[in-house]
């Protein structure tokens, strides 16, 4: 018996998650590296690099290799992936696990092959890729083989991956560059314009998660103190922002996301669109934890919408399931991506 469990890897733009068979999620770390500007030496990876974000000394840069839906820095992506995989697998010369991986960025065949070679070097016997919406749906326990159409939207940091799935195929798919980061950036912009205050990404992210809502839920006057730099005096300053302001700040990315969902529904055949109206939309990914998101989608699109349980883990869990249920998933794995539209 192999002592190393097979693994599912969610190589996300914000976070890397690894799921191990029979163990569950064994790694969940920010997809970041701290790198020395000149030497390109890696100083820290994952959580340690995340701590430095916004506070990094002049000679150090914190990098997110998958930031904008594409591979921004392939070498750094490989270093980060190898580091995490080796940590989970450990050193086993004879028992190498299999892996299924989902990447939250567009990539070409050469990059994919190189990632797979990197995985082998890190200790995986065989690595197969799976499309993100299929992994997300499977991880949320959606029956992807069901003939009646279902819609899934994985809302990550950099991208929202949307698909209508029916009979185990993706009938329409679209990847939007609007996801959690766009909401965070919108908060930064709003606070700068309205309050002349420059806040960091960490601060904006904290505000978003603590009081942010895209739908009037809860007490709108709830306020949170935030600190930044006064753009007039150049000095540190603290102000209070209300939930109502944050909702207003996030209106623009919200509308872009709604348009993106709409565009996918418009492309599917009428029978499938009808199925989606009945079966609803499932949200996965860390961004699905955004308060009010299922409610506003349901209201604006007149389609039932819900967030999965533990939405951030769905993709990694789905990759793991793909390994456990070869009969259902084998045809989606590997380099054979049919990409039907
Ligand atoms: N409670 C929350 N409320 C709002 N947004 C959240 C919450 N938790 C996580 N997020 C957002 O989820 C996004 C990251 O989701 P994740 O699935 O980890 O990304 P990726 O798959 O691209 O790595 C970030 O934009 C983060 O701010
Ligand atoms: Mg995710």
What is the strand tally? Answer: 16
Task: Please list the strands of the largest sheet in the order they lie side by side.
Answer: 3-2-1-7-8
CATH superfamily heading of the largest domain: ATPase, nucleotide binding domain
Low-confidence stretches: 335-341
CATH architecture identity of the largest domain: 2-Layer Sandwich
- Shape call: flat
Radius of gyration: 21 Å
Distance between the termini: 42 Å
Question: Helical segment tally?
Answer: 12
Q: What order do the helices and strands follow?
A: EEEEEHEHEHEHEEEHEHEEHHHEHEHH
Q: What is the name of the CATH class of the largest domain? A: Alpha Beta
Quick overview of this protein structure:
This protein is α/β, with parallel strands linked by helices and 341 residues long.
How would you describe what is shown here?
- This protein folds into 3 domains: 7-129, ATPase, nucleotide binding domain (Nucleotidyltransferase, domain 5, 2-Layer Sandwich); 143-178 and 257-311, Nucleotidyltransferase, domain 5 (2-Layer Sandwich), CATH 3.30.420.40; 180-251, Alpha-Beta Complex (Actin, Chain A, domain 4).
- The chain is built from 12 helices and 16 strands.
- The protein has helices at 47-52, 74-89, 109-122, 132-139, 180-195, 201-211, 243-249, 251-267, 270-279, 293-301, 314-324, 326-329, and strands spanning 7-11, 15-20, 24-30, 33-36, 42-45, 60-63, 98-103, 126-129, 150-155, 160-166, 169-176, 197-198, 223-230, 236-242, 281-284, 305-307.
- It has a 5-stranded mixed sheet, sandwiched between helices. A 5-stranded mixed sheet has the order 11-10-9-15-16, with helices on both faces. It has a 3-stranded antiparallel sheet with strand order 5-4-6.
- Mean pLDDT is 92; it is low at 335-341.
- The structure holds adenosine-5'-diphosphate and magnesium ion.
């Amino acid at each position: 018996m192999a002592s190393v469990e097979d693994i599912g890897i969610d190589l996300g733009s914000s976070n890397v998650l690894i799921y191990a068979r029979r163990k569950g999620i064994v790694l969940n770390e920010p997809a970041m590296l701290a790198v020395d500007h000149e030497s390109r030496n890696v100083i820290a990876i994952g959580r340690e690099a995340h701590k430095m974000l916004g506070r990094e000394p002049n000679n150090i840069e914190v990098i997110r290799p998958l930031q904008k839906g594409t591979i921004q820095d392939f070498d750094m992506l490989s270093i980060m992936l190898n580091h995490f995989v080796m940590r989970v697998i450990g050193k086993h010369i004879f028992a190498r696990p299999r892996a299924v991986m989902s990447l939250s960025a567009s990539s070409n065949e050469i990059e994919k092959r190189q990632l797979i070679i990197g995985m082998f070097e890190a200790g995986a016997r065989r690595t197969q890729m799976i499309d993100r919406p299929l992994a997300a749906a499977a991880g949320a326990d959606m029956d992807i083989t069901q003939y009646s159409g279902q819609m899934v939207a994985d809302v990550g940091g950099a991208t929202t991956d949307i698909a209508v799935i029916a009979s185990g195929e993706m009938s329409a798919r679209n990847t939007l560059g609007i996801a959690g980061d766009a909401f965070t950036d919108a908060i930064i912009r709003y606070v700068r314009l309205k309050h002349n205050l420059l806040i960091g990404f960490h601060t904006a992210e904290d505000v978003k998660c603590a009081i942010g809502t895209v739908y009037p839920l809860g007490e709108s006057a709830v306020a949170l103190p935030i600190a930044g730099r006064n753009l007039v005096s150049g000095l540190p300053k603290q102000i209070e922002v209300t939930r109502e302001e944050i909702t207003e700040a996030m209106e623009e990315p919200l509308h872009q996301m709604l348009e993106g969902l709409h565009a996918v529904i418009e492309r599917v055949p009428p029978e499938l669109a009808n199925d989606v109206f009945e079966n609803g939309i499932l949200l996965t990914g860390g961004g699905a934890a955004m308060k009010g998101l299922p409610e506003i989608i349901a209201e604006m699109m007149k389609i039932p919408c819900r967030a999965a349980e533990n939405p951030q883990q769905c993709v990694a869990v789905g990759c793991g399931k793909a390994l456990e249920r070869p009969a259902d998933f084998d045809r989606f794995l590997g380099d054979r991506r049919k990409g039907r539209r």
